[in-house]
Amino acid sequence: MEDKIGNKKVKQKCDQLASFLQENTSKKFYICSHDAPDPDSLASGVAMLRILEFFGITSPYIYYCKDISHAQNKAMQNILQLPVKKWTKDIEQEAKQLGDDAIFIFVDCAGKNQNNMSIPFDPHVVIDHHKTIPSAPLVIYDEVGACSTLMLDLMLNMPTIDIDGTQHNCFDVDEEGMIDLCTALAIGIKTDTIAFVKEGTTEYDFAAHQILTRYMSRDKFYRIDNYELPEYMFDYEQIAWENKNLMNPRIISGLGFLKSSHGDCIPYIAERFMRLEGIQTVVVFGILEDEENNNIRIRAAVRTTSAACDCDTLTKNLFGENNGGAKQGAGGAIVNLSYDIDLLDEEDRRKLWELQKSQIVKRFVKVTGK
Hints:
Blueprint: H1 8-23, E1 28-32, H2 39-54, E2 62-64, H3 71-80, E3 84-86, H4 89-98, E4 102-107, E5 125-128, E6 138-141, H5 147-157, E7 161-163, E8 166-168, H6 178-192, H7 203-213, H8 218-225, H9 231-242, E9 245-247, E10 250-259, H10 265-273, E11 281-290, E12 295-304, H11 311-319, E13 324-327, E14 330-337, H12 346-368
Parallel strand pairs: 1-2, 1-4, 2-3, 4-5, 5-6, 10-11
Antiparallel strand pairs: 7-8, 9-10, 11-12, 12-14, 13-14
Helix pairs in contact: 1-5, 2-5, 2-6, 3-8, 5-6, 5-7, 6-7, 6-8, 11-12
């Protein structure tokens, strides 16, 4: 059976990407995810590393800026031993010194102007599936359910390479690491499409996942899909329930201050609240404390199934045009606050939280109606 997805938009770009890589084999490549990589961006990054390897290019890491904090993301990283590395000032200085010999490829994000992309370089190549159309010299884009779908399609359509008279394919399941790569891509597609029920899931996502299930490790897929939850998830879920403002069919809840490494509980709780009977729109938010960088920021998750509510518009109305966005009913926002953690005492924190909570809830009521 021939492995084929059939997305013409991807196929048209394969030769361009192959030519670009072959013309730049002597340069240093940086594969970059958005700040807090999820399974789809992690899998897409690993797939891009495989494509580079196919063309004889060594690039050891997927770079990101903030945290891999969500329990499932950590499980995926540990089980599959993903080659991820946090972006640092030293890496940034190295890239600056390389100048034109540094090549940046962004996966699962539109570019450096995206709110959750802090790597300060213009990409040479962008591979993405989000609502905002990327800008770069080479863009591989289609609004499918997952970037992992595009990455598999790229590998399947890459031109063969002749090595000592033998033709080699980029997507060769007999190559070392390919079973784990298939597992990662399968998880990426399942999570980003919310098990194929999310608006925006396409026939290409179904086709890609069907191919991957033939080659992936079912044991590792199961372990990642059924990841263990840390205790703090349940603690914050209780806080969210106690702090909720219920305005059927809408609900909004604030968690107060929480560690930056616990920020993954915000989208998790938003997804949980969406399962409440009669609820169509959910907003969950909190103030994250980043002690490493001595700053604080609001993080929010927005979810809606309401036909009368555009999630992207709602997210931007609540948290600012440049602070967030959404696709197919799921949104998120990060709002940096100009305060130093070490200068805030308990009373300052209480007043700051009450002010932010009041403003966000009032804005929510104003935007969505009473």
